[in-house]
Amino acid sequence: MSANVQTDIGFSFTGFMQRGGRTGPHRDGWGITFYEDNGYQTFKDPSPCYDSPMARLVQKNPIKSRAVIAHIRQANRGHVALENTHPFTREQWGDFWTFAHNGQLSDYQILLQKGKHQPVGDTDSEAAFCWLLNELDRKYPQKPADMKAMFRYLGDLCLQLQAFGIANLLLSNGTYLFSFCANTLHWITRRSPFGQARLIDEDITVDFQQEATPNDVVTIIATLPLTSNEHWHKMAAKHYVLFHDGVNIADKSI
Amino acid sequence: MSANVQTDIGFSFTGFMQRGGRTGPHRDGWGITFYEDNGYQTFKDPSPCYDSPMARLVQKNPIKSRAVIAHIRQANRGHVALENTHPFTREQWGDFWTFAHNGQLSDYQILLQKGKHQPVGDTDSEAAFCWLLNELDRKYPQKPADMKAMFRYLGDLCLQLQAFGIANLLLSNGTYLFSFCANTLHWITRRSPFGQARLIDEDITVDFQQEATPNDVVTIIATLPLTSNEHWHKMAAKHYVLFHDGVNIADKSI
User: Fold this and answer.
1) What is the pLDDT of residues A185-221, one digit of tens each?
2) CA distance B53 to B56
3) What fold, for B2-251?
């Protein structure tokens, strides 16, 4: 999620968490990171999301945030463990960057080069995250003044990653939310006039007209649409979209 | 806490959390980090611990762990915000290191040198943490084979920090727990035969004979003793003690 106001993600998370073992096969852990200004709070658990007590707590008491990354895991590379549970967070340029990956990489040991950031667990995903940050650190030893240029370069790096397999990616520092589509990623921006939304995975409908104020802009990005009665944009393969304050501010074709 | 078995810290946390605004003045946030193998889970909140819903959740459902660091904050340097709330965690040598500080530093801008780790918030504590890790990284570009030697060097660095003020410190990677006493730090190791312990801050007594198994070794380190009927070791000023599996394995005089 990327939004221009502190937003409650409870509705989307309610649908999302069902896919973690009930309506979807991703039962090997889940996690969610909420940004609050420059800080963040992560809840994660290497057990299925749909029946996790901690997930129910998050669902019922979500932290209002302008940037959230959540993930449910189906383990392929790396065993089921807390250190292998997404999202992953590292400090770079004095910001906390948070990362989640959907897909699978092979023969990626070359990504485990020396650099500032080293993986702690044994997933392909954390290796890819550290590689991306190490490459960015190499090109930008200081925080770049032109963040859009940095994200364009990040888009090129994401393209290079696809040589190792499939990597649909989300990356945020709490201000920007960068999404890269390898083969499947969808997004929707909700703004005034708001309407109703009906979850696919639970029999729940929300009327955003009642929940939101006229200036709110909220974007949700997900592997597959979370609601059945709204139009979600399907991202083109090998394409990125960059969001800021809930708004699509750049994509690969710009 | 440092322990040789996955241990429930609920009893100690129950006493500790009262000091976060009820029986003590540290009402500007609290946090707790539990290690699970190489991964960690942090709960933190920039509001008073004693009446925090998240703290009550942690108290009632503590994650069993072999290494835990908890902190309650009385803000002096840095505003009340999530990014300024201890403990702080950074990856170094492929491990997650977690840090908490009690004390206050002045004129510490010299610590904000270039290096791998940069603070995100504006506390003296996070600046000190990044400085320590950057100095360690400079001396040990790879994970040191002789960890006791590394901790001796860390003890020297902690001594240097005292030139800027007071820094009682805890640092752990989930395997080792390093404690440095500037002026006040106490510890107790509980092992067989276990007895009863009575909290100072709450009218609660626990019989560890009922809770622990004969081989358990559990050390609690705290600014001030948490129980009234046990003997806590008072650490000497400018002295460190290193714990591993609940056992004091090295201190400055060794």
Assistant:
1) 999 999 999 999 999 999 999 999 998 999 999 999 9
2) 5
3) Glutamine Phosphoribosylpyrophosphate, subunit 1, domain 1 (3.60.20)
